[in-house]
Structures are given as structure tokens and as C-alpha cells.
């Protein structure tokens, strides 16, 4: 009985795998009939060091989008001093490779994402709000027309 049960389970799993494969194939065929390119984004989050991405010919085969991690700590390490170079280069590379770009999160509520200088203002809510608003406006203005999608905040309930 145990051997028969094992065989039944094995056949059931193989059948389930085959049905799943056939269903997936049918769904993709149907979608490709409607759209030459699927409207689903498959992205990878990339930060200021994108060397691994640029040196990987497989990257553009695997993904059709990139999330550019515009971490406030990396973009504005000192108050009013912006470090645009690595992000500009990454955005340019994405555009050259016809990848859809999502920027952000711009404000991520974690100690490793907020600039160290911001803590000087932790008791001054109005100034914190102004700094955040200025940062968001500055980044979005810089990449207007180049980055299509934005994630403004994450870990808000952290």
C-alpha cells in the first residue's frame, strides 16, 4: 500500500507540474497574441555602484526594467551637496539599453538610508518636512522625462 501511495503521489506531482507548464504556456501565448511585448515589468534594484550591471550582458535579457535606488544618503551625503554622477550614468545606461526606469524609494525610513546630517534636525519637524520636500522635488526635477515611475517613500510604517 505504501509503494502504491508513493507511486500515486509521484504521478500526481508530475501531472500537476505538466498542467502548470501547459497552462503557463497557453497564458503567455494568449498574451503575446494581444501584445507583442508583455506590459509586465521585471526589474532589479540597482544602487550607486552599477558596475556589475554594466558588465553583465545577461542583465538586459533577464530584465526589462531597473529600479534606480536613489537613496537619499547616497544622493545628498552632505546637506546641499549632491552626488549625481553614479545615478546619471546609470540612468543614461538604462535609456541606452531601452530599460524602463523606476526611481526610488526617495525617502526610506531606515537609519541606513537617511543622510547623517539630517539627524541634526530630528526635533524640528518643520525643517525635516522642508528638507524632505526639497530633496523629492530636486530629484524628480533632475530626472523629469527620463524616469517614468517613482516610489516616493518606503518603510513608512517601520
Average pLDDT across residues?
Answer: 88
Question: Counting H and I runs of at least 4 residues, what is the number of helices?
Answer: 6
The largest pleated sheet is described as:
4 strands, parallel
Lateral strand order in the biggest sheet: 1-2-3-5
Write the layout of secondary structure elements.
Elements: H1 2-34, E1 43-46, H2 51-54, H3 59-62, E2 65-68, H4 72-75, H5 85-96, E3 100-103, E4 107-108, H6 125-142, E5 149-150, E6 153-154
Parallel strand pairs: 1-2, 2-3, 3-5, 4-6
Give an overview in words.
This protein is α/β, with parallel strands linked by helices and 158 residues long. 47% of the residues lie in helices and 11% in strands. It has six helices and six strands, in the order H-E-H-H-E-H-H-E-E-H-E-E. It has helices spanning 2-34, 51-54, 59-62, 72-75, 85-96, 125-142, and strands spanning 43-46, 65-68, 100-103, 107-108, 149-150, 153-154. The strands form two sheets. The chain has a four-stranded parallel β-sheet, with helices on one face. Strands 4-6 form a two-stranded parallel sheet. It is elongated and about 70 Å long. The model has no long low-confidence stretch (mean pLDDT 88).
Q: Which terms summarize this structure?
A:
158 residues, alpha/beta, elongated
Brief summary of the model shown:
47% of the residues lie in helices and 11% in strands.
Amino acid at each position: 500500500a505504501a509503494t502504491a501511495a508513493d507511486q500515486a503521489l509521484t504521478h500526481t506531482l508530475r501531472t500537476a507540474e505538466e498542467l502548470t507548464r501547459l497552462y503557463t504556456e497557453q497564458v503567455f501565448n494568449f498574451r503575446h497574441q494581444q501584445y507583442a511585448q508583455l506590459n509586465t515589468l521585471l526589474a532589479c534594484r540597482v544602487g550607486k555602484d552599477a558596475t556589475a550591471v554594466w558588465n553583465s550582458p545577461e542583465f538586459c535579457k533577464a530584465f526589462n526594467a531597473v529600479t534606480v535606488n536613489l537613496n537619499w544618503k547616497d544622493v545628498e551625503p552632505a546637506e546641499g551637496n549632491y552626488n549625481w554622477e553614479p545615478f546619471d550614468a546609470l540612468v543614461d545606461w538604462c535609456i541606452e539599453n531601452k530599460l524602463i526606469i523606476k526611481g526610488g524609494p526617495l525617502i526610506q525610513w531606515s537609519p541606513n538610508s537617511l543622510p547623517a546630517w539630517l539627524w541634526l534636525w530630528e526635533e524640528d519637524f518643520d525643517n525635516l518636512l522642508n528638507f524632505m520636500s526639497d530633496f523629492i522635488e530636486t530629484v524628480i526635477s533632475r530626472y523629469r522625462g527620463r524616469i517614468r515611475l517613482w516610489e516616493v517613500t518606503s518603510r513608512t510604517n517601520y
